[in-house]
Amino acid sequence: MTALLELNGLTKAYPGVVANDDVSLVIQPGEVHALLGENGAGKSTLVKMIYGLVKPDSGEMRLRGERFTPAEPRAARAAGVAMVFQHFSLFEALDVAENIALGMENPPKMRDLAAEITRVSNAYGLPLDPARLVGDLSAGERQRVEIIRCLLQNPKLLIMDEPTSVLTPQEVEILFQTLEKLRSEGTSILYISHKLEEIRRLCDAATILRLGKNVGTCDPRQETARAMAEMMVGQVLHVPERTPHATAEVALELRNLSVKSPSAFGTSLKDVSLTVQKGEVLGIGGVAGNGQDELTAALSGEVLAGPGQIMFDGADVAGLGPNARRALGLLAAPEERLGHAAAPDMSLTENAVLTGTVRKSLTKNGFLNWAGARSFAEEVIKGFDVRTPGAHTAARALSGGNLQKYVIGREILQKPELLVVNQPTWGVDAAAAAAIRQALLDLAAEGAAIVVISQDLDELMEISDRFAALNEGRLTKPVPAKGLTVDQIGLMMGGAHDMEAAS
Amino acid sequence: MDLSAINPTLLVAALMVASTPIILAAIGEMVVEKAGVLNLGVEGMMIVGAICGFAIAVETGSPFWGFAAAALGGAVLSLLFGVLTQYFLSNQVATGLGLTLFGLGLSALMGQGYVGIRPPEMGKIEVPVLSDLPFFGPVLSNQDAMVYVALLLVMATWVVLRFTRAGLVLRAVGENHDAAHALGYKVVRVRMMAIFFGGACAGLGGAYLSLIRVPQWTEGMTAGAGWIALAIVVFGAWRPFRVLLGAYLFGGVTVLQLNLQAAGANIPVEYLSMSPYLITIAVLVIMSSGKAKAALNAPACLGRQFHASS
User: Fold this and answer.
1) Where would you tag: which of A15, B105, B118, B191 has the fewest CB atoms within 10 A of its CB?
2) Closest-CA residue of chain A to B182
3) Does residue A88 carry a pLDDT above 80?
4) pTM for this one?
5) B185 contact residues in A (CB cutoff 8 A)
6) Where in chain A is the domain with CATH 3.40.50.300?
């Protein structure tokens, strides 16, 4: 049997970095092949070459034994290669059918296409209404749009880039059933992920990339998740240590917090109530777009709430802006690193001033204290092992993981009483993620209260004392994180607000 | 003052003429913005179109060749903007403003020998049947060809954007250029074509001013029409028929205030002259004040730099 796709010695270099160095792999027909690796290991570049977005410098690809050199995505699609992107491929202001038509070579008339979408989506257990605007869909539904767009072209090879990062456990289950149905029909799948348990469950073979090189191929069912993780990182992983420190003192109390979302496609918060104790880590889970950004904004003070809805240390802070809250010790690190947590084109020193000026007294009579700012930035760089030439470097020049360490470290070193972080380790490699989690736990051990908003359930289970979930802007009652099962979490994320159903 | 001197039929007929340059420029700019490009050089392209059209019409004696030259002149100027912003990645706002200043200067230079000349006249088209209707006859029939061209252009733009694949790709490029690129669409090529179309439309609008509405050549004769076209696109929420409505409103108030001036209304002339600008903007702002709705229709990549880095 000839292999479906064979890559031989693919190399692609960008100025200053070799993204792929002599990578080879083989995908058999009807095989689910995992591509594993840290951020920056070269997974994206590799699949972009297969999909015709990037041309390899050297090496060859063979599809069903024949030379395969797609000049553009159109050619790759015509050859039977389809791709579900992680980001950047849907148009929010267009409807589902229009989005799908854009990904097809010769789309039928809109009316026929709508019928076809309904038929295929039902056949694969992924119901979808072709007339809805994509901007109104949940993350899980948006992914369905991408998958259906691929399936309508009967692909031989389906490339999926981190498909489960935005899904609830139940949605992951549905996705896996769809993928298994595809495999049984003979479609091969190249599955990119760093979630090892998923790969062990779903995939027949795995190729592991580190720093652009293929460091091994294995059968994921025979390996432990830990062994694969260490192949991926190239070092022994450090698991964060945790000892519960919750005290009886309440740091933060939300009383029926209701906030209207500032964006057209956002989710408004509805009657969110919770308390966080000093020394406690409260984890807030939920599928993206269920009010996470709004909750972060309401807590940081970017969006103001009604009187009495946010009590911090017994005082009403609902009407105070971010700087006033910082002065009291309520700090926040939002999700988007570039553009929200940090100004991309400003140096690390300048970025240190932007949030640190209140608590670190970096301004005096309206003038900046540059020496103080620089030493504060250097303190963060040193304390959090941020890899950068120095504090004068622009934030944009740092890799995602390093910038995230800097952004979180900047808040932690201001000694907050309460720290709110949104997606603290999103897109960060495993070693940096472990360091960030450890830093958060250390901060809690010193008596600060911490609210971690994240879509990474493993992370929340690892560091939280209590867990709650956001669903359509409502928050479930927080429950102790220890001993929660995946089913219970799934129910909470799916909107079972009454925990009696789950416990 | 004597309001009875104002004849509503003639007023509406004049309104059609007064709004045509704005319709042409605005519909072109709307297509450009739908593709995600903000070209603030409309005023400059209009005035270059005005002098190109005027000069060629005078030299050849044919208004038709005048309009063709105007479209070409505006489009060539827009290509300058396109090359700078799309290939050299210059800032769109600054480049657009520069284009306006450049266009004003260039047109003054080109027009030196054409001051005080009358251009050849363009024939009116009498539409059979329609011209016999009581009120609509004089309004809709017996206008010059460009009035109909402008209306057809609005219709065609709506149809293309709404129902064709080319329109879908154009909207997709303006909505999310990274996604469009990932799907294999040529973002820069689509945008260059949109910019070219926008330039041609602005040129036609300018020539309509110098050949029909005024009709003669004076320096700076567009007098802010390009800026009004830009405002109408935004407040018309990037919808062809709202843009048309905005242009009619502007044309209508312009004609009305001229009539009021002629009728000797008891309002200072300065206020009357500024009224079309104020009223058009005010009405359009109120119409598009639903924040969420306007945001939904705005092309999400408007004015953003695209560079295919990967």
Assistant:
1) A15
2) A89
3) no
4) 0.72
5) 102
6) 5-233, 250-501
